[in-house]
Specification:
alpha+beta, seven-stranded mixed sheet, three-stranded antiparallel sheet, binds adenosine-5'-[phenylalaninyl-phosphate]
Length: about 350
């Protein structure tokens, strides 16, 4: 049996060198040292040996196994190195292959339009003031002259965090916050851009949308100042031919109040599908700041007057870019967004 073992070793050492790759070497290893391999088969005859021979042969078999394992492992390293060398030698650099496309991000269309709106008002001397997206019932409604149980609260159904804390339904609460911060200084001349939330959801109403609030408080501010400011805004935003129309409306925090329309940007006032044949499109609510709102902000309505407006940024974006569904802006479809 000793001779058989030595023969197996000699043959295995010669065969090992003939393995051309790692796969062949692994197959070879299994065929010699594996559970059903040649060495195991040979050792099954150990039972026939005498008690003195058995440990001697057993030890020899172990030595042969260890030696073969070591040779296989070394040869596998040689094969691996050869493979790498071959790969390097065969590699060529193809400079004509297309490069990896590096995509750069861009500003979302809505924020491009919001910035454009801000620029128009900054050009008219307004400063940008930041409000809070999470507001208290007090600022969102009460100081806007909407006490609890006021029926006009129904116009702006909100998302409540607690009965007293909610996601703001409009940017108007920032009016009072700004008045508190600035009183008794005049003029207060601010715009407040930001996200607002309502329980709305259709093609022209989104549960999260954007407004830009405007507030001017000073001596002798008149309704005609409001009208002139909004006309100037519409012209800078939509072109010099743009007209605006004020329709009487109701907001508890302004008196008088108006809904403001611009002449339809699609048909220029002739009447089309977008404007429902009327030639006009609503973009904002506005009015003269209610004396009680001035008072609650610390100002004396006998000495100062003011106007305010709340502009829908998403609406302006739809009109400027001819979008027929507001929700396109929030679906995060890159094919849509990268057009702008
Ligand atoms: C208000 O939110 C008042 N705070 C505006 C205001 C401010 C009036 C200051 C007077 C003085 P209104 O609910 O009409 O008003 O909303 C104003 C504008 O926001 C609308 O003209 C419209 O352009 C836009 N808007 C309203 N709801 C949505 C909505 N769900 N999705 C998208 N835009 C909306």
């Amino acid at each position: 049996m000793r001779e058989q073992l030595l023969e197996l070793k000699e043959k295995a050492e010669a065969d090992l060198e003939r393995c051309v790759d790692l796969e062949a070497l692994n197959e070879f290893r299994v065929s010699v040292l594996g559970k059903k391999g040649e060495l195991t088969k040979l050792l099954k005859n150990m039972g026939r040996l005498s008690a003195e021979e058995r440990p001697v042969i057993g030890q020899l078999a172990n030595e042969i196994r260890d030696q073969l394992e070591t040779r296989i492992s070394r040869f596998s390293e040689t094969l691996r190195d050869q493979g790498i060398q071959r790969q390097i030698a065969g590699e060529t650099l193809d400079v004509t292959l297309p490069g990896t496309d590096v995509r750069t991000g861009g500003r979302h269309l809505l924020y491009q339009v919001q910035e454009e709106i801000e620029d128009v008002f900054i050009g008219m001397g307004y400063s940008v003031y930041e409000g809070f997206e999470i507001e208290t019932d007090y600022y969102n409604f009460e100081v806007m002259n909407l006490p609890k149980d006021h029926p006009a609260r129904d116009m702006q159904d909100s998302f409540y965090i607690t009965p007293e804390v909610l996601l703001r339904t409009h940017t108007s609460p920032a009016q009072n916050r700004a008045m508190e911060a600035m009183c008794p200084n005049i003029p207060v001349k601010i715009i407040v851009p930001g996200r607002v939330y309502r329980r709305d959801d259709d093609a022209t109403h989104s549960p999260m949308f954007h407004q830009v609030e405007g507030l001017l408080i000073d001596e002798h501010v008149r309704f005609s100042d409001l009208k002139g400011t909004l006309l100037e805004f519409a012209r800078q935003m939509f072109g010099p031919e743009q007209r605006i129309r004020l329709r009487p409306s109701y907001f508890p925090f302004t008196e008088p109040s108006a809904e403001v329309d611009i002449s339809c940007v699609m048909c220029h006032g002739r009447g089309c599908r977008t404007c429902g044949g009327t030639g006009w499109l609503e973009i904002l609510g506005a009015g003269m700041v209610h004396p009680r709102v001035l008072e609650m902000g610390g100002y004396d309505p006998g000495k100062v007057t003011g106007f305010a407006f709340g502009l829908g940024v998403d609406r302006v974006t739809m009109l400027k870019y001819g979008l027929d569904d507001l929700r396109l802006l929030f679906e995060n479809d890159v094919r849509f967004l990268k057009q702008f």
